[in-house]
Amino acid sequence: MSRPSFELISTEQVARILDEAFALLAHTGVRVSLPEARALLASGGAAVDENAEVVRLPEALIRAGLQSAPHSFTLYNLLGEARLTYGDDQVHFDPGSAAVNVLDADSGRQRPAQSADLLRIIQVAEGLPQFAAQSTAVVCADIPVPIGDLYRLYLVLLHSAKPVITGAFTAEGGQRMLRFLAGVCGGAQALRERPVAVFDVCPTPPLVYSAFAAQSLIDLARAGVPAEIVSMPLAGSAGPVTLLGSVVQHAAECLAGIALHQCAAPGAPIVWGGAPAIFDMRHGTTPMGAVETAMMDAAYAQVGRSLGLPTHTYLAASDAKLVDAQAGLESGISAVLAALAGVSMVSGAGMLDFLNCHSAEKLVVDAEAVRAALRLREGMHELTPTLGLEFFVGIDFRADFLKQKVTRQLFRAEQSLPSAVIDRGSVRAWEESGRLDTWARARLRVEELVAAYTPPDLPPAQAQELRERMAAEQKAVSA
């Protein structure tokens, strides 16, 4: 089997990006707002300017972190089942997060997301094999802010048998989530051995680790729960205007985060991730569907892969406001590029409007783009002793390949068959079925998946533990 791949930059450019990132961290440094984090880096040999909160990192310290960071790790679900591997040249997709709005299917307009919307997205994603993981996809406006991060995680754990890509908006929220996970997974050591979640951690561009981000890296490292650095340079605004310049910034922010993370707990799992974008000078927006955004993602993923690290990116999203042709164009192209670039986890499916809005209907359309992208990544299979000769034995110039037994045996191995969201019928069949467009077919598919949803088979005691711990947290916040 031949597997296609996509490398946007040369090996020489990868080396130059890393050289410049090392130089940037050694001379300019990175601002780190948490005293404990500065102390950890200083203990590893970094030069610290306490007044300016600037840390200058020697290459040896960063290299030590890269050496101790694992090249892959496994994610589990609450049932203790291994579900996916980050790294090892595997590519996975999950729904993007964390949108504040959803696209209402009835009105066609955005509105603030509710917990019922998150549950619906979870149920839809659970029935789509294209998504190896769930996400805490939306911020629920009907949940009190102090427990909002935890409640989103709780809903996914209770209603899904897939691992989850998540994160917190405060250090306290992240610590609460880690305690909750340890409690429902059988203890801190059990969570370390069988992590069920990856947590995003976002540096502030350019070259800043807030107290919250630094604390999150330290807490996750010490808990042994995978951390995913989501570096977000905005080319032309919060990053250099050139794509390669912003990739250098991305590399520097990731390298600094890895150094801190590994100083806190050498060997803890960490991901070279991100969500960069160009800055559209005409509108003052950050288009996630722009091809240049996808180019930066592919380039930085190539840098991370050169270091042997698991990678992550935000693609398969769109800046469109509806599930329309623009949404399909932008999401489909970037899903293919991410798969060919070999990104370990690709977030963003289901998302619209610069990641501000989520749509279950878009999620099922994007699942078809993901299906096609993953099939493309598989490449051309050699399923028969010869490539083609044997098919022509006895064919006698007749188009009778449908009659061959091997056709019936192998067509499903060769063809990745789409759901009914994709129309491959005749015009007549389409007209007879009601002349439905993609949006209408997506709405039907969502309803089918929600109707067919079955909750994970959690042991009753574990499900009760989840509910009781969540109720206790809600009571504590209300007190």
Automatic annotation (TrEMBL):
Q: Which Pfam families match?
A: MTTB
Please give a single GO biological process term from the UniProt record: methanogenesis
Matching InterPro entries: MttB-like_sf (IPR038601), MTTB_MeTrfase (IPR010426)
Could you list this entry's UniProt keywords, alphabetically sorted.
Answer: Methyltransferase, Transferase
Alphabetically, the GO molecular function entries are: methyltransferase activity
**What is the similarity comment for this entry?**
Belongs to the trimethylamine methyltransferase family.
In Swiss-Prot or TrEMBL terms, this protein is called: Trimethylamine:corrinoid methyltransferase
